[in-house]
Amino acid sequence: MSLTAIQTLERTRRLIDDLRALPAETSWVEFKENNSDGHLVGKLIAALSNAARLADQHFAYLVWGVRDGDHEAVGTSFQPGVKREQGQPFELWLASRLQPSLEFRFEEVDYHGQRLVLLTIPAAATAPVEFDRSGYLRIGSATPRLSDHPERLRALWSRLQPYVWETGLAAQFVPGDEVLAQLDYANYFDLTGQRLPDNRQGIFERLEADRLIQRDVGSHWNITNLGAILFAKRLSDFGPSVERKAVRFVAYDGPGRADTVTHRQDGQRGYAAGFQGLVDFIDNLLPRNEHIGSAFREERPLYPAIALRELVANALIHQDMTITGAGPLIELFSDRMEITNPGAPLVSPDRFLDAPPRSRNEALASLMRRMRLCEEQGTGIDKVLTAVELHQLPPPDFRTEGEAVRVVFFAPRRFADMTPEERLRACYQHAALKHESGQRMTNATLRERLGVDAKNASQASVVIRHALQAGLIRPADPEHPRAGYIPFWA
């Protein structure tokens, strides 16, 4: 047996260990002993694939040879490679009845002396999976039709639609010359660090590999939504589903939307093609504060550049593309900046700092990370909060506004001028940031973050006490409360 085969077998055995360790079957895991009825298996594949997508799992699993009740490995007589259904090989018979097609995989495993069969099923990707033209879903131990549960069908489609949008077509049957005229392909090669090919075929091959274009008939091409939204020279060249997602910027001469608009900019270029220009445009409009260093004076922007960059990038990649007629909005007021993107958040706003990065638009996020236009390890919010603390700004407010996420980024303000809510938010964010870096918040670190003198340590103590009462933080060591504090979720 080759080294690769040994590693594959070891991984499969460990996977079965984990599946057996589950306290009970889940919506995306099923155990059987010997039941291999073809129609039952087909329905289960469709149901488990759909359930895996609803549960945010990449795969679902069906294991033969494991007892349902106690998950004991008892072995199975089922042989998928030998079984035939209606005169056809079993796998071929299943594949012909599943829509959309799935790359499911059977594996026969010697598991600690017992013969098991593992079926790995990819989660539904583009549409609900059907068997014999009917969709199914797992609810407990039942496998009902999807059509009998419209609320779950709607939920499933909501998980699938963002994927559909990225791979959807912004323009079809486009001649090669027009593809090069409509997409800023030179910018693509520059941002991805690739050498610009010296022939058209090489350019098209790279654009196709990153799913920015697709081959169409007659030597023509399709431009995907992903290609248009990132690299369009003019978003107006494409349909409303792309054009209306342009970034809008509005600046006011006061603290409210009723004040006079001083600047307005509607983005004309794709996100990647126009990102640096957008950030530079905003940065040039920001007021400057004079900073006196050890030997000279310098002007610094009111808002840290790195924080602005990360927040704008987050708004682009985390928006819900399926919400029509809406795109990211950046508003600059005299006392704050607000960045809004359509779509309810996938995680609670108070967990943006520690939650693993998730995006509705994985292809968009992946490519923007490759181009270093957004944070690669999901630490963009860490950088925002670190920059805010370094400049001793009021804490940003991450909030849900209807079906949108809004980040409010405040201009400099002294501790004495902060509201009680802002002081609590600053305390919580500081504790979370310290925890993420392996440290603990103390009275001293909070004083430094808030710009409070040591002689006024009691002010920081009051903030900590109120944060404890609000359940935002807790003592790292209950036996020694003054040893430091950590966020409530730690």
From TrEMBL:
> Which residues belong to any copy of the Schlafen AlbA-2 domain?
25-143
InterPro entries, per this entry? RecG_C_sf (IPR038475), Schlafen_AlbA_2_dom (IPR007421), Schlafen_AlbA_2_dom_sf (IPR038461)
Q: Which Pfam families match?
A: HATPase_c_4, SLFN_AlbA_2
The name this protein carries in UniProt is Predicted transcriptional regulator, contains HTH domain
